[in-house]
Amino acid sequence: MDTEAVQALNKFGADSGLQNFISEYAWICTIAFLLLLFKSQLDTAVAGLQVFMGSGLNEDDVVVVDGRPGRVARVGISRTVFYLYTYKGGKISGGTKLAVPNTQLSSMKIEKPLAKLETEDFWTHGDGPNGHK
Questions:
Q1: pLDDT tens, 47-61?
Q2: Is this model's pTM higher than 0.70 or not?
């Protein structure tokens, strides 16, 4: 009786197409598993590409990071490195190196100061911007 049950089960498995289904779509399951396994690395890589393509941060840019003056030392695929300076008495007295994962750049306050503009070059004291009083 046991041999009849085993034969019936084997015949059901072959007739149901389950074996064909698994063999045909196993590669999709494998790729999905690998994507889930390396999700954090993929997020970091995508954030790195976004920094390269559209953030406006370039190496040697002068920046203000969370209120501290500094410059961009390196922009990489996974992280960006800043040199932040400490001023005392108008002179640089020290500093720190800050390496930030690119996934965290969007949550930081990073400013790029503009070149010093003299307002007299654009309007007189009696007028406001665009010639209005």
A1: 777 766 776 788 888
A2: no
Residue 133 placed within a domain: no
**pLDDT tens per residue across span 71-108:** 999 988 778 899 999 888 888 888 999 999 887 887 88
Domain that holds residue 68: 39-114
Question: What is the Cα–Cα distance from 112 to 104, expressed in whole angstroms?
Answer: 18
Q: How many residues does the chain have?
A: 133
The first and second tokens of residue 113, run together, are 């100061």
User: Measuring CA to CA, which residue among 108, 102, 107, 106 is closest to residue 48?
Assistant: 102
Residue whose structure tokens are 């085993």: 6
Query: Do the beta carbons of residue 87 and residue 37 sit within 8 Å?
Result: no
Looking up tokens 């965290």, which residue turns up? 104
The mean of the pLDDT values for the chain is 78
| CB 79, CB 64: distance < 8 Å | no
In a domain, 119, yes or no: no
> How many CB atoms sit inside 10 A of residue 105's CB?
19
